[in-house]
Write a structure and sequence with these properties.
Layout (H helix, E strand, L loop, with lengths): L2 H6 L6 H27 L10 H6 L13 H7 L6 H19 L26 E2 L3 E2 L64 E2 L2 E2 L2 E6 L20 H15 L6 E3 L12 H5 L5 E3 L5 E3 L2 H7 L20 E3 L14 H4 L7 E6 L10 E4 L7 E4 L2
Parallel strand pairs: 5-7
Antiparallel strand pairs: 1-2, 3-4, 5-12, 6-12, 7-8, 9-10, 10-11
Length: 380
């Protein structure tokens, strides 16, 4: 029941009270109208009007999809833009990447590029351009057919290789090339030794090493007439004289004197310089000295070493021979004419005698001014 009905069923009110009641009713009605209007308009934001409060509520984010945004904002963000500048930049980046890939060197495409030395589209290990697009050159181990006669790489020119340093077979040095390489060979296959009935096998005289006593005599400083010293002294001079006499007879190999000093170095012992072999040791006349190096050191010579390099018997056997060497090839540690450099009557040197007994290498000592012979052995 509203308030007017209440008034209709009650006693009349004083005029003053009636005026107050009507005024209250009017205020309640206005409040209800205002709340209804506010509720109905809450879904629609206020439109922009003058005044700072209205501008704050009406501010909205720019709509990037319309394309009507501020140009400055488009350049800063770089997103969502359809401008021609941005599209061109992306396309340029793609083109550069494509160009880099296409420009990488490719061997066997017919174009010399990058680190390639050649590219004939016919890469072959036997042609002018080998895999890796490298030029085929002498010494790379790949034979260039028609240009190189051979190519064994680092072995070119090495003894035993059948390819010379210039990649031709003509300059190769090996056993069987019909040339005696004196550093490595005694002979060439098929040859027969001039003094012995032995054949050349493997470019060595089969089972044979030469031993002789010198036809010349030397003082304690290894001096003699007819042979040069070539600036050498001591044991080196003695070895040189053995080689010189062997060369006069064209004996193959390297020769050393059976002679030792007391210096205690790697060349002091005769056995160390000569070496040793399992071959037989024979004199130029064919006489057997020992069946092997070890047999010589253990048993001494089977026959006296008394034939010279020319195959003649010494004129005064048993002849004295400078030595200072034990039967096993080491230094006696006795008199050595000051390392075989002295030729005076003050200094002495140890000697042996040409014979087959124990004195063949150790028979006594004498003044260095005297002249005696040397034993010469072909090296093992």
């Amino acid at each position: 029941m509203d308030i007017l009905t209440i008034f209709a069923h009650h006693r009349p009110m004083p005029s003053t009270l009636r005026i107050l009641v009507l005024a209250s009713i009017s205020l309640v009605g206005c409040k209800e109208d205002t709340e209804d209007d506010s509720a109905s308009d809450s879904s629609n934001p206020p439109t922009s009007t003058a005044g700072p409060e209205t501008e704050t509520f009406g501010e909205t984010e720019p709509d990037l999809s319309t394309g009507s945004t501020d140009p400055d904002m488009t350049e800063t963000t770089g997103t969502g833009s359809t401008s021609g500048d941005t599209t061109d930049a992306d396309t340029s980046t793609t083109d550069e990447t494509t160009d880099d890939t296409s420009s990488e060197p490719m061997c066997n495409n017919g174009i010399v590029e990058g680190d390639e030395e050649c590219d004939d589209m016919m890469v072959s290990f036997n042609g002018p351009c080998i895999p890796g697009c490298l030029e085929n050159v002498c010494g790379d181990g790949h034979q260039y057919i028609g240009v190189e006669g051979c190519d064994e790489g680092e072995q070119n020119g090495v003894y035993g290789s059948q390819c010379g340093f210039d990649c031709t077979k003509e300059t190769a040095e090996f056993c069987g090339d019909e040339v005696v390489q004196e550093e490595y060979e005694d002979c060439e296959p098929g040859e027969l030794h001039d003094d012995f009935e032995v054949k050349c096998i493997g470019c060595k005289w089969a089972g044979f090493r030469v031993v002789f006593v010198t036809s010349l005599t030397f003082d304690g400083a290894m001096n003699t007439e007819g042979l040069s010293n070539d600036g050498k002294s001591g044991l080196a001079r003695a070895d040189l004289h053995c080689q010189q006499l062997a060369d006069t007879q064209e004996f193959p190999g390297v020769f050393h004197a059976w002679l030792s000093d007391n210096n205690g170095n790697e060349n002091s012992n005769a056995a160390d310089r000569i070496g040793g072999s399992n071959d037989e040791y024979r004199m130029p006349n064919g006489g057997l000295v020992a069946t092997s190096w070890s047999a010589l050191l253990e048993n001494g010579p089977a026959n006296a070493i008394e034939y010279t390099e020319v195959g003649e018997l010494v004129a005064d056997p048993p002849a004295r021979v400078w030595s200072n060497t034990t039967p096993n090839g080491e230094s006696l540690g006795a008199a050595d004419c000051l390392g075989w450099t002295a030729s005076s009557q003050v200094d002495g040197g140890s000697f042996g005698r040409t014979g087959a007994d124990s004195q063949w290498t150790d028979a006594g000592a004498s003044w260095c001014s005297f002249e005696y012979r040397l034993y010469c052995f072909q090296g093992g």
